[in-house]
Predict the structure.
Amino acid sequence: MKQLPETFGSLVFDDRVMKAMLPAKIYQSLRHTIDENVSLDPSVANAVAAAMKEWAVKNGATHFTHWFQPLTGITAEKHDSFISPAPDGGVIMEFSGKELIQGEPDASSFPSGGLRATFEARGYTAWDPTSYAFIKGKTLCIPTAFCAYGGEALDKKTPLLRSMQALNRQAMRILKLFGNTDVKCVKTSVGPEQEYFLIDRELYKQRKDLVFTGRTLFGAPAPKGQELDDHYFGVIKPRVQAYMEELNEELWKLGILAKTEHNEVAPSQHELAPIYTSTNVAADHNQLTMEIMQKVALKHGLVCLLHEKPFAGVNGSGKHNNWSIATDTGVNLLSPGETPYENAQFLLFLCAVIKAVDDYQDLLRIAVATAGNDHRLGANEAPPAVVSIFLGDELTAILEAIEKDEPYSGAEKETLRLGVHALPKFKKDATDRNRTSPFAFTGNKFEFRMLGSANSISCTNIMLNAAVAESLRIYADRLETADDFETALHEMIRKTIKDHKRILFNGNGYDDAWIKEATEERGLCNLRTTPDAIPHLLDKKNMEMLISNKVFTEAELRSRHEITLENYNKAVLIEANTMADMARREILPAVSGYCGKLAAAVAAKKAVLPGAACGYETETLASLGELTDTIAQRTAELEAVTAKCRAIDDVAEQGFAIRDALLSAMDALREGCDKAETMTAKEDWPFPTYGDLLFGV
Ligand code: ADP
Ligand code: MG
């Protein structure tokens, strides 16, 4: 058997392969593009394509695809074989630089939010050399951006790359002011922790709700849930262990640094975390990870659920976006330094994040807004829909001391002068204990915890990078023209703390009192649902920031606003259809059939023993009879509300109708059905129960 270091990245056209296969000049030119974000020299494309093809064919590939991330939230691929007819009747394997650099999938059915109607029907894909090509199955996958012919982004990668460039631009200005001349570029890195459920495939197939919507729309609670906390970090069952082993192997072959795995809080819930990497690559890897998690599960007779709330009453699944900013020279700009100067620089970057998160709370909320994630945020298992930052007591005390020009108790007696005094040492591990904060500083990075398990991390990082770039831009504008750098720096940090301290909160984010304080006293946004959040994408301040930092154009923002709302509406409408279908064609016939059995039992008893007591049967029959009518009536109501919602043209208006009327009609139907489940014989219930699903692996 091959050892891990040998198989790691064996399906990736990575640096090792490129170095070995490309002529030195070509390799250097490509490396330059990858490391420093400079544009690609077109002459290298042919050489790279030739090497890529040779390597891919040697590793069993017959096809290639431009692999991209349209606004569906998942990845897309269209395979083309390498074959080209040869004069002798055979074929040769061909792949040109042009095919590597640009593709033209007939992509007219991807969501474009009106962009394609106004511009061009076709879309094109463009190679992203900063993310390595890899082999999946028999196909060479080339990570690409996906754009309309006018250049408008139709995907999640393009704006992510733009946001990284925006942050790089502004961070470089700041670093120059601090005298860093050796740094060539600044990149953000991300390590996303991914939660998921594993359930038995045979049981899954019997549940239309899981098949069509990814979550259970019915289901009475199992006798046991997560109350014993016996699953969290518990011993991993052999079947799950076998799954995790194969998953890791597949991920490692693709160069994905899968590192940590453990059981999560809910029964059947697990987590996987990779080692962090450059944001763009992390986003590609997370998409691939989600895909492979699902694929490998099938091989083990399992299904991997990535929905944010597959089961009512137990925890849903999220994703933690661990994020930091680092230079190409290896300095983490969110890590407190050793010298007074490094510390001032650290504090400035820290303040840039604080300012960004406060100024653009709404954009961070928007980035994670989906129908699925609405079930989690604020439901006592995930951070609330209110964004706030946890810094920990010591760092907070330091910032307070700076703001008030007061001595910090942990330090010398004098007040802190940035750039003059070293920062008092504070313990890093004291900072990671608050799990209820949406945005926590964890020593040398921030952990944004509002993402849903199925979210693309691109959305979050686009907003985060752009917002921090904007803070840095404002700082750089001011500092570049300051007469006295140190005084200006000190004043700016103080001003940031003063202006934005409302976003800092070290307490319990799950507490209702906090939501009240946050919204009523501090004026923080509480955008509870997706229809509440998404319209703010088009707020003037948000549009201006995203457009001026060249992350989105106005047309792109309008299209994304439309698509995100549309996705929400469609997701819930499909759920409503599925519920009505299951109620009419499975639950009602089953309950009614069971009522028939009860009635027959009564008749049978009485035939033998005319005076027999039939209390249990008749009472159950009466209750179920009544419930059947209630269910039928609520199904009809749900269908009527669905039809009404469908008829609304305006997406925003439709979103609100769905949230207000449709979700409650769904809840009402579920309530009746779940009650019926508790009274119907197990063998007569038409699909597996919560107990079966959650404890079935
Ligand atoms: P936790 O206490 O949240 O379980 P860890 O400290 O083990 O977390 O890290 C969780 C994730 O954070 C991992 O994916 C890790 O690679 C990532 N991470 C660590 N350092 C950084 C960094 N500087 N930038 C981005 N992500 C990081
Ligand atoms: Mg974490």
